[in-house]
Amino acid sequence: MIPCCPEKLPGNLSELLTLLGKLWAESDTCPHIKIETKRAWDNMLHAWSSDNSLPLLIRKGSLVKGSEIIHSSGRVLIPTDNSPAQWACHLALRDIVPTLEEIKDYIQKDSIPVAFAHKKKEQGQRKYHKTLGNNSINKFGWQLCHIQNVGLNFRTPLESSSIDDLKRAFISLLSPSNFFVVPKVWGGMGDTSEFITAFQIATPNQ
Q1: Domain annotation covers residue 137
Q2: Which end of the chain is more exposed for a tag (fewer CB within 10 A), N or C?
Q3: Are 129 and 68 in contact (CB under 8 A)?
Q4: pTM of the model
């Protein structure tokens, strides 16, 4: 008989994982985005979310990435995978903060990645086609993780979901204040509560 995985691991194992997360969060080897860069990104993202002329990028893997959905408020929503977050992290780690005018230009020119890859059968259903490509931090050996969950844990169609909830999800997805990275070879270790808690403690209320 195959045993079920316990909800809680033995105490000493969880403690070791907590210690590893803390050591990684405090390590000089761990790439850290500068506090002033995070704040500048947060200011820009809040301005973006408040500008109804700009679409909101929403991570929703079950929808056609790069397509347009019109919210009941009239706001344009673009379903994506985690590619916009990778793009934002790639810029923020180099201390690059786009202006709102640059964001408008990027969107017009389809320069912000919306997917790691596209399905050919969906080509006619999407308006935006940019893939992650060279904007990936994976190619440097890193795995991007979020401190606060960015998934939409409800089944309500995007077009009738709370616009405030969608704005919060958009900011959480792209905000460098919500990022940390782990070595890609560590796989999903960065998704554990022990690692997430370590980075919550290491970067409080920036």
Answers
A1: yes
A2: N
A3: no
A4: 0.91
